[in-house]
Amino acid sequence: QDLLQEIRGGSSQERRDSLRRFDWATGDMRKLGWSMSQKGLDLGTAMIVFFNGDPAHFNYLRKDRVPMEERARCQVLDAIHRRVVSGFYLPDPDQGLGDVFARILEWVERQEDDRAKGRHGRWVFDPRLFTPITLKAVQDANDDDDDPLPCEKESPLTDRTLGAAANRNKRPGLLRELLGPILG
To answer: Residue 42 carries which DSSP code?
Structure first.
């Protein structure tokens, strides 16, 4: 009840702080799942909540091998992952990804190492989800589709990581499709 009250009331920063402090060991996973499904939650907060759930511990376990007492946790992690990869959460326009960016980089690098070894974890993220999105990046991408996206050039993500992601997905990006008529 307290978590729901904190989420429903207060400023957006208070709601973020409440989610970041969620206790995965004793908290109610149903309430956390509900809270994470609310509109307006930023990508940085969602990724902090995801990492606080200790996904590395369960990343290589098949769903049927997850201990019964941890299945609710993994279901919430699954839901957060689905929302992240679908673009449900967007970076905060003022703070970006904030202090979680280094943890995201580590996760993406590990999944690329896994790919090289022929392994595949449960929660795989496209690294382009975490590159800076700017109007200039979209304009430059429209100017020359053969060059890597400018946001990829300036990103701290490695060329290897971005190159692999770019090769997996050759279709035009959603932002390009949406902003194409505006940018010309």
So the answer is: B
Supply 65's token pair.
């091998």
Q: What is the pTM of this model?
A: 0.69
Radius of gyration of the chain from its Cα atoms, rounded to whole angstroms: 18
Which tokens sit at 183? Answer: 């940018």
| Interatomic CA distance for residues 109 and 160, integer angstroms | 9
| Residue 37: CB atoms within 10 Å | 12
Using CA atoms, how far apart are residues 39 and 179, in angstroms rounded to an integer? 22
Q: Residue 118, Cβ neighbours under 10 Å: how many?
A: 6
Digit-coded pLDDT (tens) for 43-53: 999 999 999 99
Other CB atoms within 10 Å distance of the CB of residue 127: 23
